[in-house]
Amino acid sequence: MRRADGRAAPVRARVRAGTRARGALILSALACALAGCAMAPHAPPAATLSMPAAWRTPAPVAAVDAHWWRSFGDAALDALVQQALANNTALHGARLRLDEYRARLRVTEGAQQPVLTANLQPARVRQLNAFVQPVDLTSYAGGFQASYEVDVWGKLANATLAARADLQSQQAALDAAALSVAAQAASGYLNLRGLDAQLALAQATLVSRKRSLDLATRQFDVGYSSRLDLNQAEAEYRATAGAVPQLQRAIAQQENALRQLVGANPGPVARGVELGKLVAPTVAAGVPSTLLRRRPDIAQAERAVAASDASLADARDQLLPSVRLSATAGLQAFSYTQLTNHPFELWSIGGSVLAPIFDGGRLRPQADAPRGRVLCLQLGMRTLDVLQFAKP
Questions:
Q1: What is the pTM of this model?
Q2: Considering only 141-155, 283-297, 316-330, which range has the smallest mean pLDDT?
Q3: Angle at the Cα of 196 (from 192 to 200), degrees rounded to 5?
Q4: Which CATH architecture has domain 37-112+151-320+355-390?
Q5: How many CA atoms lie within 13 A of 36 on its CB side?
Q6: CA 26, CA 362: separation in Å to the nearest integer?
Q7: CA separation (Å) from 135 to 332, 335, 336, 382?
Q8: pLDDT higher at 79 or 45
Q9: What is the per-residue pLDDT across 65-96, written as a single tens digit (0 to 9) for each?
Q10: What percent of the chain has pLDDT over 70?
C-alpha cells in the first residue's frame, strides 16, 4: 500500500487495514449464520369444521343493535340496564383486567424499543498507590448508556402479538360479560313485570272469589244451596288468597336480585310500561357463520387461540441466541474544577450474542406447554362451534 506521495505506507497501517477487512468478513459471516438459524413460519392447518351454508329454516339478515333492550320501548328497563352496565361488580372486575392487559401490551411493545439511561456517580474512595500507601481520591463520573436488542428471529414481535391477542381476548370477555349482564337485567325485569301481572290477576281473582263466597254463604243460609257448594266456594277463595302472598314474596325476591345485579342494596325497582304494552323486538339472524361472528364468547375463544399460537412461537424463539447492541458515553474527573473545564471523555460501543447452551431442560418444556394449550383451545373452540350450529 502506498500513500499519496508515492511512498510505501507504514506496516502498521497495512496491518490495521487487513484487520478491519477480516473483522468485516467475520461479522458478515456471523450475520449469515444467525439468519440461517431462524425458524421458518409454520403454515396454519386446514380447517376441519364443516360450515353449513344456511339455516334449515329461512330467516332475514339484519344488523345487530348494540342497545337492543331499547326496542322494548320501556324507559325504566333502559335505565335499569344502563345502571347494571355501569355498576355491576363483575363488569368492573372485567374492566380492571382489561387495563391490566393493556399495560402488558405496552410492556411488550416497549421491549422492542431502544433503552436509554443516564447515571451520575460521585465517589470518595481510599486505595493503595504504587508505593503501598493509602491515598484518598475523589471522582465524578456521569454519562449515558444505550442498548437495543435486535429482533432477529421475531421473538419480541411474537411476544407483542401474543399480548395484543390477549388484550383482544379480554376485550371480547368484557363484551360477553356486558351482554350477559344486560340480558340478565332485561330478563329479570320482564320476569318482574310478569309477576306483577300475575299478582294483579290473583288480586282481581281474589275479589271475584270473595263475591262468590259471599253469594254462596247467603244461598246456604236461606237453604237455596247445599253445604258442598259453600265448601267449594270457600276452598277456591282460600286457594286464591294463599297465592297472593307467594307472588308478593316472589316479586320481592326478584326485586332484590335485580338490585344486586345493578350493584345496589335490596329495595324496590321502578316500573315502566305494563307487560302487555311492551313492544316485542324482532329477532333476525343470518347464516350460521355470520351469527357466530356476532357472539363475543366466540371472538374471545378465537383471540385466545391466536394468543396461544403467538406465545408458542415466542417460547420456541427462546431457544435461539439473543443479539444485543450497546453504547456508552460519559465524562469523568477527579475534581469539580476538572469536571467543568477539562474532564476525561469516555465512550464504548459493542454488541453481544447470548445463546443458551445448558439450562437444565427448562426452555424446551416452556415451548411444549403452549403447544398443549393451543391444541386444547382449538378443540374447545371447535366443540363450541358445533354446539352453536346444533341450536335451532
A1: 0.68
A2: 283-297
A3: 170
A4: Up-down Bundle (1.20)
A5: 6
A6: 32
A7: 18, 15, 18, 76
A8: 79
A9: 678 888 888 899 999 999 999 999 889 999 99
A10: 72
CB half-sphere exposure, 197, CA atoms < 13 A: 13
Residue type, 214: D
| Nearest-angstrom CA–CA distance, 300 and 277 | 37
Q: Is residue 278 very low, low, confident or very high in pLDDT (cuts 50, 70, 90)?
A: confident
What is the pLDDT, as a whole number, of residue 263?
Answer: 87
The three three-digit cell numbers of residue 249, written as one number: 314474596
Query: What are the distances in angstroms from CA 35 to CA 151, 310, 313?
Result: 11, 20, 17
Q: Which residues contact 305 (CB under 8 A, 6 or more apart)?
A: 374, 377, 378, 381
What residue type is 380 in one-letter code?
A: G
Bridge-based pairing state of the strands 344-354 and 322-333: antiparallel
| DSSP assignment letter at 72 | G
Question: 167: Cβ–Cβ under 8 A, 6 or more apart, which residues?
Answer: 98, 101, 102, 104, 105
Grid coordinates given for 65: 343493535
Question: Quick one: three-class SS letters along 137-152?
Answer: EEEEEEEEEEEEEECC
Task: Give pLDDT, residue 297.
Answer: 75
| Domain definitions of the chain by residue range | 1-36, 37-112+151-320+355-390
Contact 269, 189 (CB under 8 A): yes
pLDDT tens for 118-140 read: 988 888 888 888 888 888 888 88
CB atoms < 10 A from the CB of 217, how many?
13
